[in-house]
Amino acid sequence: MFKMESYLIFKDLAIILLAAKFFGILARKLKAPMVVGEIIAGLIIGPCLLGWVQQTDFLIKLAEIGVILIMFSAGLETNLKELKKSGVLAFCIACMGVLVPFIGGFLLYIAFNGFDGIGTDGFFRGLMIGSIMTATSVGITVETLKELGYLKGRIGQTILSAAIIDDVIGIIVLTFVIGFKDPTSNPVLVVTNTLLFFALAIVGGYIIYRIFQKIDARYPHSRRIPIIGLALCFGLAYCAEEYFGIADITGAYVAGIILCNIRDAEYIDRKININGYMIFGPVFFVCIGLKTSLDGLNMNMLWFSVVFVLVALVTKIIGCGLMAKIFKIRGVDCLKIGVGMMTRGEVALIITQKGMDIGMIDSSYFTPVILLIIISSISVPIILKCLYTKAPDPVEVA
Fold first, then answer.
1. CB atoms near residue 217 (< 10 Å)
2. What are the CA-CA distances from residue 237 to residues 9, 259, 357 (Å)?
3. What is the pLDDT of residue 243?
4. In whole angstroms, what separates CA 222 from the centre of its chain?
5. DSSP letters for 3-18
6. Which sign, positive or negative, has the C-alpha torsion 344, 346, 349, 354?
7. What span, in angstroms and rounded, lies between the C-alpha atoms of 396 and 392?
8. Contact at 8 Å (CB) between 395 and 153?
9. Average of pLDDT values for 130-153?
10. In the chain, where does DSSP find H-type helix?
């Protein structure tokens, strides 16, 4: 029995990696993110269609490692200096870019399913739908602005900085929502544990950062640096969940931020991405497709998916654009910022996955999220190009 299970594991991995690569390349050729292709690969080879691969405990664990590595890499790629430069403007835009979609997602769920009262399962599902809408994936926007020659301009840098802050706030929101979901949890304790975790992360993170600086200076570009960094990632992911009741992905993200300013941060990220790109990342995204069930897909869910996409796109424009207007940015530039913040990607999928893991939502909600990623990834570059063609920045910085 053990040999048969081992054999099946290798077969499943071979199918997953080949399908993920094929459909990922196909998606990229169609100007969509590769993750969309990888998710579609899971839908095709999984129970929804061909049934070649079934979800197993082994694949679930590999996928969990995948999401941890993705969040660690996101933290490593965070530019704290740019965050400081962007200042109050980017922070306020990010806050409204989280608040308005969060409220919009919650009200959307209530509109379709009714309101059963605070503390009910329906209430927490609404909060989770709102949390999913908060995420921003700026990768597509960055590539578009690079092509147009406006990434280093004021609006481009504002979008980039606000998107980074947006994801940090979104992870914090997810942390609170998950904490409050536990019926035995004390709201004061949830808030205290969350604040305590981030306080200790700041103090302990600074100490760890200094230690890594010394190691980096003594052993530059040595393999021990990314190995110790990876251990820090897994250690903080464990501590966040075990001792503070905070999502493990939050710990992994914080680990990346702690190391993002050391000299070898890019080297660590490159080494980590080898594992993530080769196996753990594709397994994570394909497993989303494997988990997606069409059993709960009915006309109500189809209508919900359509409205979900519209609300998710419009609320980002309203929240980010209005806040930019408050800072007296001209109208067309406010629209550029709002549109630039519309794209969704890995973080939205990660939040959805986390919500499903703890039973707050079921797998049918992957449908609107995947639809949102596809539509936003295609529409944002087109809209931004039109806006910049009609109204270029006053000073173009190539």
1. 11
2. 26, 15, 16
3. 85
4. 30
5. HHHHHHHHHHHHHHHH
6. negative
7. 8
8. yes
9. 72
10. 2-29, 34-45, 57-76, 80-113, 121-134, 139-148, 154-181, 187-218, 224-244, 248-259, 265-275, 281-291, 299-326, 331-340, 346-357, 366-390
DSSP 305: H
- Nearest CA to 376 out of 73, 122, 101 is that of 101
Confidence band for 63, pLDDT divided at 50, 70 and 90: confident
> Per residue in 166-204, is it b (16+ CB within 10 Å) or e — as a string?
bbbbbbbbbbbbbbbbeeeeeeeebeebbeebbeebeee
Work out the number of other CB atoms within 10 angstroms of the CB of residue 139: 15
Instruction: Examine the pLDDT at 304 and tell me if it is beyond 90.
Output: no
From 152, 102, 153, 156, select the one nearest 127 (Cα to Cα): 102
Percent of the chain with pLDDT over 70: 84
Question: Is the pLDDT at 3 greater than 50, yes or no?
Answer: no
CB 272 within 8 A of CB 76: yes
* Predicted pLDDT at 147: 64
**Per-residue DSSP letter, 363:** G
**Under 8 Å between Cβ of 54 and 47:** yes
Does residue 396 carry a pLDDT above 50? Answer: no
The tokens of 69 are what?
């590595």
First to last CA, the chain: 61
The DSSP letter of residue 280 is I
Nearest 10 degrees: Cα torsion 169, 131, 381, 301: 180
> Cβ atoms within 10 A of the Cβ of 59, count?
21
Residue length of the chain: 398
Work out whether the CA dihedral 9, 57, 229, 17 comes out positive or negative. positive
The span from the CA of 274 to the CA of 73, in Å, is: 11
Residue 157, pLDDT > 80, answer no
